[in-house]
Amino acid sequence: MNKRALPFVALAVVMLVGLFIWLRPPAPEPVRQVPASPAPAAAAAAPVPPPEQVYRYQVAGGRRLSGPESILVHAGEVVNLEVTSDRADELHLHGYDLHLQLQPGQPGQLRFTAVHSGRFDFELHHADLELGVLQVLPQ
Question: Would the pTM count as exceeding 0.70?
Answer without folding.
Answer: no
